[in-house]
Write a structure and sequence with these properties.
By secondary structure, the protein is of the alpha/beta class. The protein is about 40% helix and about 15% strand. It is globular and about 50 Å long.
Length: about 270
């Protein structure tokens, strides 16, 4: 039996997945939503000592307390970092690691490192890098206001009611997890994976990734593994709020190994 574990990003918690979790359960799936320490209804546990290891342990403990033999682990936005860390610790339990509109974490890099080195120049990069400077008492990043969500949240498709709920339930985010370098082994790269790109206002889609693979860029060649699948969703950065039914279907299909597959670049001297 396989269970879904859904891990959200900064400012949010398990509540973010309400509609998607209901849809997955209606389809017969077992579902567990993670709320990371210091966020959501665990915001009262926030403190300056919370780091990425804290959040990795949150996800690891959740996996350990699930009876299902295999887990489809879904990491959304920042949530992919603790998800990748937990997948490294419990690789034998992970049937598939799903990257939901998220970066691809690399060993030895923090989220801030990757934004600084690999995110295209622009307002989104500048805001992310400035988060640490906005932190109250040096560690607590205030949650965005309604106006800030509207201006910077890439909310395409999100209803006014859902935006109001997001603003009401969003919690300050501990700064430590964003700055700590992730340590993972090759066990993560060896897992079956699915990438889900939210293409409205996003910076990546399947066609762009195919072009990177075709260029021979070493960093992405492993994504042509036949166990790696991909989906495009024509929505903004919050698909669980904007198109929960479509996201539910995508996650079920991902768990079944469906999705677009990339063509590997032929080795030098090999026939195409």
């Amino acid at each position: 039996m396989t269970a879904f574990v859904l891990v959200s990003g900064g400012y949010t918690g398990g509540w973010l997945w309400r509609e998607v979790a209901a849809g997955l359960r209606a389809a017969g799936a077992e579902v567990h939503t993670a709320t990371l320490t210091g966020l959501g209804d665990r915001r009262h546990l926030a403190g300056p000592d919370i780091d990425l290891d804290t959040h990795i342990e949150d996800v690891t403990q959740l996996i350990d307390h699930i009876d299902a033999s295999e887990v489809v682990l879904v990491g959304y936005c920042y949530g992919i970092y603790p998800s990748a860390g937990a997948a490294d610790r419990r690789a034998d339990r992970i049937a598939r690691l799903v990257y939901l509109d998220s970066p691809m974490p690399q060993d030895g890099y923090s989220m801030i490192d990757q934004v600084r080195e690999r995110m295209p120049d622009g307002p989104a990069r500048d805001r992310t890098l400035a988060q640490q400077e906005r932190a109250e008492d040096g560690w607590r990043i205030p949650a965005p206001s309604l106006a800030e969500w509207r201006e910077h949240g890439n909310l395409a498709g999100v209803s006014d009611d859902a935006l109001i709920r997001l603003t009401r339930l969003a919690s300050p985010a501990p700064a430590g997890p964003y700055a700590q370098k992730l340590r993972i082994s090759e066990a993560v790269a060896a897992l079956p994976t699915t990438g889900v790109f939210c293409t409205t206002g996003g910076t990546m889609d399947i066609a762009s990734l195919e072009a990177l693979v075709a260029s021979g860029l070493p960093l992405v060649q492993h994504l042509a593994d036949p166990r790696a699948t991909f989906f495009d969703m024509a929505t903004g950065h919050w698909p669980m709020l904007s198109t929960p039914e479509e996201l539910t279907d995508v996650l079920l299909r991902a768990a079944a190994g469906e999705g677009h597959r990339l063509r590997a670049v032929p080795a030098a001297g090999a026939s195409a």
